[in-house]
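Duplicate of #3305? Posting structure anyway:
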């Protein structure tokens, strides 16, 4: 009763208390019900059912074991889990409670107004993919979307062939300290040459897939070995992803065509693919931007063996055949655009750097990246690419990257690939400010590298490695308009014959207070118009209508 008083509730008897609790159904649905379910033993279920009724008078918490789940890791618990979720939905909503145990399952169908709570020791285990089409398995992929199917791969176009999925839902949650383990999921042919065809009926490829949903809360649980995607959210609005650990064998989370997104306090280890990836594909059959997104206080890496982050042993990965990925990226699927995005207070370790890519017609604008710490970056610390791959409907115009602010980045121990800002002829990246940053690169480039002229490769898949060896140690700048670099230091571990800055076709370049390495040239410039240089080591101050030459 004292707690109810704290809410300024004045109740004379228990019936009034119950009325007050029911008036707080939304509060209970998103937090208290899940917390109570995890804190009170299963033997107290009768008490919980009495304390937290639904509008129909039924129990607001459904224990999957009471509905027939075994939780022994051997029995197939799919039917019992889906029965529990359906019962909660039929009652108007509630929480489905997973006590400690291993719940082996095929496709789990989420429902509106229903949350799943995974208690300590609770594991939802993806059952093995079926050997034949006649064996039990995951739900079949939904029919092809003829309008948009051609513009992204099979994994992006289908949601129902997943361990957990929801389509057209609202007010749902998955919370609690338990685990979703996608042990039986496939990652696609690219990663499993002898694996099953993801398009085959019964084959599951994603841990959690959501399409056209709203008001979603994902909090506190772990995803291990999530398949093609740990989380695929497409057309989802008002989604909170908080305090997740994702230790996976492909993408950690893909946020595609979503609006009002909050990602925070997540640890993501994905050596084989991207960690936190924003996309704006054509998977919904029409253009839809990803916008109003914040990514805060997250750790991304590609350095650790699968499962060793989830169990906190942090063992280094040894079976990787290419540089680890594990980064935060906007793209590659980029039809609808990215607007009003912030990334702040994040740590990158032994992975690729931050990437902003528009190659399919997307407009990327009003993006802020700040307070980022990087160590052992295996590729470009910053990669911006405006290209013309144009995996999009005919006559789609080339996109744009503009109004990007980057500040307070420290990067140590990075490789030979510098930060890259590369548009294409007649389509520059525009209105960029990079300030208050420290970049330490390995150096070691020779004269042959310094003499290179990278190909434009306008239609190629965008990656920093796409250009091969790079003739710069700190920044490669090409086809950029209105760029300001200020309060930046570039430092090299070993001497380098390449310049700190290599610039071609840059209009309105402002360089202020740059500390450039003493063991490398400063600048190789051609076609730089309206340049202003102030207080930069190894560069003369002044304003130049045309800046050319080597310094």
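Output from current build:
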């Amino acid at each position: 009763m004292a707690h109810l008083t704290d809410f300024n509730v004045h109740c004379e008897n228990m019936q009034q208390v119950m009325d007050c609790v029911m008036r707080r159904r939304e509060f209970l649905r998103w937090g208290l019900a899940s917390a109570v379910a995890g804190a009170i033993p299963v033997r107290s279920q009768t008490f919980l059912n009495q304390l937290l009724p639904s509008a129909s008078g039924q129990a607001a918490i459904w224990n999957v074991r009471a509905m027939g789940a075994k939780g022994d890791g051997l029995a197939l618990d799919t039917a019992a889990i889906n029965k529990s979720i359906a019962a909660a939905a039929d009652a108007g909503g509630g929480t489905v409670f997973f006590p400690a145990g291993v719940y082996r399952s095929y496709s789990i169908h989420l429902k509106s107004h229903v949350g799943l709570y995974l208690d300590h020791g609770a594991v939802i285990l993806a059952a093995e993919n079926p050997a034949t089409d006649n064996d039990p398995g995951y739900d079949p992929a939904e029919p092809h979307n003829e309008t948009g199917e051609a513009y992204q791969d099979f994994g992006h176009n289908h949601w129902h062939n997943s361990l957990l999925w929801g389509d057209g839902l609202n007010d749902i949650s998955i919370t609690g300290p338990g685990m979703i383990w996608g042990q039986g999921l496939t990652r696609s042919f690219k990663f499993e040459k002898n694996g099953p065809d993801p398009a085959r009926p019964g084959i599951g490829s994603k841990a959690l897939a959501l399409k056209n949903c709203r008001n979603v809360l994902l909090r506190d649980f772990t995803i291990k070995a999530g398949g093609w995607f740990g989380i695929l959210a497409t057309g989802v609005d008002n989604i909170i992803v908080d305090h997740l650990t994702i230790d996976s064998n492909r993408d950690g989370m893909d946020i595609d065509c979503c609006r009002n997104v909050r990602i925070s306090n997540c640890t993501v280890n994905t050596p084989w693919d991207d960690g936190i990836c924003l996309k704006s594909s054509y998977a919904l059959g029409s253009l839809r931007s990803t916008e109003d997104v914040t990514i805060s206080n997250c750790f991304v890496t590609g350095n650790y063996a699968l499962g060793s982050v989830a169990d906190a042993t942090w063992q280094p990965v040894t079976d990787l055949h290419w540089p680890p990925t594990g980064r935060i990226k906007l793209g590659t699927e980029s039809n609808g655009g990215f607007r009003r995005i912030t990334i702040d207070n994040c740590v990158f370790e032994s992975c690729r750097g931050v990437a902003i890519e528009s190659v399919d017609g997307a407009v990327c604008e009003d993006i802020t990246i700040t307070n980022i710490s990087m160590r052992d970056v295996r590729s470009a610390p910053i990669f911006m690419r405006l290209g013309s791959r144009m995996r999009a409907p005919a006559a789609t115009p080339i996109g744009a990257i503009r109004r990007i602010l980057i500040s307070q980045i420290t990067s140590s121990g990075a490789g030979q690939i510098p930060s890259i800002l590369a548009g294409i002829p007649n389509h520059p990246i525009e209105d960029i400010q990079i300030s208050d940053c420290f970049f330490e690169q390995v150096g070691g480039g020779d004269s042959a590298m310094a003499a290179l002229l990278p190909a434009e490769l306008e239609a190629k898949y965008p990656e920093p490695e796409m250009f091969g060896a790079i003739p710069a140690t700190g920044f490669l700048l090409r086809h950029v308009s209105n760029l300001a670099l200020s309060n930046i230091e570039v430092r090299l571990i070993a001497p380098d014959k390449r310049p700190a800055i290599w610039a071609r076709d840059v209009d309105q370049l402002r360089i202020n207070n740059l500390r450039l390495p003493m063991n490398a040239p400063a600048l190789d410039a051609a076609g730089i118009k309206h340049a202003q240089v102030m207080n930069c080591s190894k560069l003369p101050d002044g304003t130049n209508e045309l800046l050319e030459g080597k310094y």
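Confirmed duplicate; merging threads. The chain has a mean pLDDT of 89. The chain has seven helices and 34 strands.
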